Amino acid sequence: MAVDCLFKHAHLFTLAGEGVGYIPDGAVAVTGNRIIAVGDTNQVLADLAAAGNGVIKQEIDATHQALLPGLIDAHIHTQLGLLRGVAQDMHDWMMQGVLPYMLELKPRWQILSSQLTVMEALRAGTTTFGDFLVFPDPALMEFYLSSGIRVRPILPVFEIGPELLAGGKLYQLDDHMGQASYNEALRLYAEYHGAADGRIQCMMGPFAPDFISEKTLVKCKDAAAAKGLPIQMHTAQGDRETEQMEMRYKKRTIPYLDEHEYLDPEFTAVHMTMANNDEVHQVAEAGSKLVVCNGSIGLIDGMIPPAIPFQEAGGTVGLGSDQAAGNNNCNVFNEMKLTAFFGKMRNQDPTAMPADRALRMATIDGAKALGLEDEIGSLEVGKKADLILVDTRHPTLQPVIEAPFNLTANLVYAARGNEVSFVMIDGRVVFDDGKLQTMDEDAVIQEIRETVPSRRKKVGFM
Questions:
Q1: In the chain, which end has fewer C-beta atoms inside a 10 angstrom radius, N or C?
Q2: Would you call 144 helix, strand, or coil by DSSP?
Q3: What is the CATH number of the domain that holds 10?
């Protein structure tokens, strides 16, 4: 069997097993879209020769490069990229800040938003996106296919009625909207789930427990179970939600979801900033996962998501950048750093949330949060070839010291994302030599500059 690509002499981080799986002179061999060999460079070369893998089509000397699994953004809204910076340093961010602009995004601007977001993220080493759709659109799915990214499109179901912006009042849920969004979610699932040799795999996305009726909540759960789809949901994400849940159901979010059998290994909660300690433990002990978006929640709410208590309860936590409208960037390196810092501040303990744990949250634990750990998240034989190279010759990553080993800490605390030099997804090169290979960046930026006005009013781009 020929080897399509051999990476050798890298600072290899496999993320397999415990820790980061560091090999100081490591190699990875790829055939098609799968990894066929991982290990010490000399051993991999010897094993390939012994197995009769005579032809190596491309060899990449990765000296001075850190070779890692592609980073995983387990919760992001790519369709909000054009709202970067419109609603910062304010209270009631969602209702009075971003939502009035979001509701006016034109369909073409939604695609431009996603293209802009993906361009930024790919350049910083993100290979997998848990993209929670705001506007269900086949055009977005087609963009996924052409861009080469790996995506878990989270298909939204919501019943947001006209009373949504009325603070302090019970939301008026729209049953017709709920049915229409549910039908559209199933249609997109039927057309795109499993596309591109499994690069596109859907999740069910009841948007939030306060945004849908009890009937629709049950219907989403039943559909997901019937089709074998995991569920991701914004959960216990703010006092607004808690207020709505107590007004409508006389319950807090977590007991309500437990009553409807949502808390299981197929469920991933996002945020949980308003969950109390008992609720955090309840979700973790049920086998559910959590995605935290520290950059977004820190900026929007000034709060620290419960990553540490969730992990202490035995749960798995992945990282998400959420969206440019509330985070101002879509960069998993940034999320690793903030997650580690917030953990230390929360516990007032510099040993809390160490760098190796943050790196795992951005890779293998993120894969677990999306139900993809058997395919991605670590560099192991048989897994998909989603990997990145990070150039340690950048000033931010110098010097590289072997004892005490400093590269893991510098990847988490010092790297900015611009050190990424190469990105491969599903065995296909999507970023190399400073250029995206699957997108025309100049054309996207030019269209944004020509079509998105520089002046905005409170309701939409005007």
A1: C
A2: helix
A3: 2.30.40.10
Report how far residue 315's alpha carbon sits from residue 282's, in angstroms, rounded to the nearest whole number.
10
CA-based nearest residue to 424, from 5, 40, 1: 5
Q: Which amino acid is at 329?
A: N
Between the CA of residue 247 and those of 131, 242, 281, 459, 461, what are the distances in Å? Answer: 30, 9, 25, 28, 34
How far out from the chain centre does Cα 105 lie?
Answer: 22
Answer positive or negative: Cα dihedral of 320, 324, 326, 330: positive
Average pLDDT for residues 106-124, to the nearest whole number? 95
d(CA 315, CA 20): 19
Yes or no: say if 430 and 123 are a contact pair by the CB < 8 Å rule: no
Question: Does residue 457 lie within any of the structural domains?
Answer: no
Query: Which of 40, 52, 45 shows the shortest CA–CA distance to 2?
Result: 52
Residue 321 resides in a domain: yes
Integer Cα distance of 445 and 443 in angstroms:
6
Distance (Å, whole) CA 134 – CA 370: 18
* CA distance linking residue 242 with residue 64, whole number of Å: 50
Statement to judge: residues 405 and 431 lie in one domain: yes
pLDDT, tens digit, for every residue of 337-395? 999 999 999 999 999 999 999 999 999 999 999 999 999 999 999 999 999 999 999 99
Residue type, 358: A
301 and 412 belong to one structural domain: no
Long-range interactions of 35-41: CB distance < 8 A, separation 24+: 35/379, 35/380, 35/381, 35/382, 35/383, 35/384, 35/385, 36/1, 36/3, 36/381, 37/381, 38/12, 38/14, 38/379, 38/380, 38/381, 41/8, 41/9, 41/10
Distance CA 214, CA 251 (A): 12
Q: How many CB atoms lie within 10 A of CB 112?
A: 21
Is residue 325 helix, strand or coil?
helix
Q: Say whether 358 sits in a helix, a strand or coil.
A: helix
One domain, residues 228 and 320: yes
Range of the domain at 427: 5-69+377-441
Interior/surface letters 311-346, b for 16+ CB within 10 angstroms, e for the rest: bebebbbbbbbbbbbbbbbbbbbbbbbbbbbbbbeb
Amino acid 168: pLDDT: 65
